[in-house]
Design brief:
- Modulates transcription in response to changes in cellular NADH/NAD(+) redox state.
- With 217 residues, the protein is an alpha/beta fold.
- The protein has 2 domains: 10-79, Arc Repressor Mutant, subunit A; 86-198, 3-Layer(aba) Sandwich (Rossmann fold).
- Helix content is 42%, strand content 18%.
- The protein has 8 helices and 10 strands.
- The strands form 2 sheets. The chain has a 7-stranded mixed beta sheet with strand order 6-7-5-4-8-9-10.
- A hairpin with a 2-residue loop joins strand 6 (127-128) and strand 7.
- Helix 2 (36-43) packs across helix 3 (47-55).
- The two termini are 27 Å apart.
- Bound molecules: adenosine-5'-triphosphate (ATP).
- Residues 91-97, 117-120, 136, 154-156, 159, 163 line the site of adenosine-5'-triphosphate.
Length: 217
C-alpha cells in the first residue's frame, strides 16, 4: 500500500478485496452506480458497516444517489495496489500447493504465484501452469533476485518453522500459512494463517450448535 494512503482499521482493510471484486463485476456489466443496500446484499456485509468502511476514504457516497462505481473502483485499485503485480513464492508443491498454482489468483486481483519450491527431485525443473518449480537449495537466491516479499506455505507442518526462518532471513514480509503449524516470526513479518481443516470443523460445529441464523462475530 502506498504511504499516502489513509490508515484504515484492519477489519475494514480485510473487506476491501471483497468490495473490489464485486465492484469489478458491476463495472464489467456496465453499471455506473451502486447503493450501500445493493452492495450489502451482494457481499453480505451490513450496510451500516459498508457506510462506515467507505467513510474512512472520505465522502464517497451521497444519500439516495449511491456510490459511483468507477470512482470506487479506481480508488480501491489504488488502495489495494492493484496497478502493480505482486509476485508471490509458493513453498511445497504437493496436492494443495499444486491446486493453488493452477488457481493462481489472477482472476481476482493482481497477485500471482511466480515461482514454486520443493525438495522432491521429480518436481524440480517442471512447470505448473507457467510457474517454474525450483529446488529449496535455491530459495534465498531466487526470491532475492525476483524481489519477492510474499510467500505461501504448503509444506508438511514439521518443516514450516525452519522454512519460515529462511524466508524471514531472505526479506519475506508476508506469509500465507496453510500448514497447521503456528509460526514464530519477528514483529516486522506478518503471518496470515489459513487452516482449512479447522475452518471446516468449525463450520460443522456452528451448523450443529447454532444453525444458520446466528452470526458468528
Ligand atoms: P503429495 O501427494 O504431492 O506428496 P501432499 O500435499 O499430500 O502432496 P505433503 O506431504 O503435504 O504432500 O507435502 C507437500 C509438498 O511439500 C510436497 O510436494 C513435498 O515434496 C513438499 N516438501 C516436503 N518437505 C519440504 C521441504 N522441507 N521444503 C519444501 N518442500 C517440501
Amino acid at each position: 500500500m502506498s504511504n499516502d494512503t489513509v490508515k484504515i482499521p484492519q477489519a475494514t482493510a480485510k473487506r476491501l478485496p471483497l468490495y473490489y471484486r464485486f465492484l469489478k463485476n458491476l463495472h464489467s456489466s456496465g453499471k455506473q452506480r451502486v447503493s450501500s443496500a445493493e452492495l450489502s446484499e451482494a457481499v453480505k456485509v451490513d450496510s451500516a458497516t459498508i457506510r462506515r468502511d467507505f467513510s474512512y476514504f472520505g465522502a464517497l457516497g451521497k444519500k439516495g444517489y449511491g456510490y459511483n462505481v468507477n470512482y470506487l473502483l479506481t480508488f480501491f485499485r489504488k488502495t489495494l495496489d492493484q496497478d502493480e503485480l505482486t509476485k508471490v513464492a509458493l513453498i511445497g508443491v504437493g496436492n494443495l500447493g499444486t491446486a493453488l498454482l493452477h488457481y493462481n489468483f489472477l482472476k481476482n486481483n493482481n497477485t500471482k504465484i511466480a515461482v514454486g519450491f520443493d525438495v522432491e527431485e521429480a518436481k524440480i525443473g517442471t512447470s505448473i501452469g507457467d510457474v517454474p518449480i525450483h529446488h529449496m537449495d535455491e530459495l534465498e537466491k531466487i526470491i532475492t533476485e525476483m524481489g519477492i516479499t510474499v510467500a505461501i506455505l504448503t509444506v508438511p507442518a514439521p518443516f514450516a518453522q525452519t522454512i519460515t526462518d529462511r524466508l524471514v532471513a531472505a526479506n519475506v514480509k508476508g506469509i500465507l500459512n496453510f500448514t497447521p503449524a503456528r509460526l514464530t516470526v519477528p514483529a516486522t513479518t506478518r503471518v496470515h494463517h489459513i487452516d482449512l481443516a479447522v475452518e471446516l470443523q468449525s463450520l460443522v460445529y456452528f451448523l450443529k450448535h447454532y444453525g444458520v441464523d446466528e452470526e458468528e462475530e
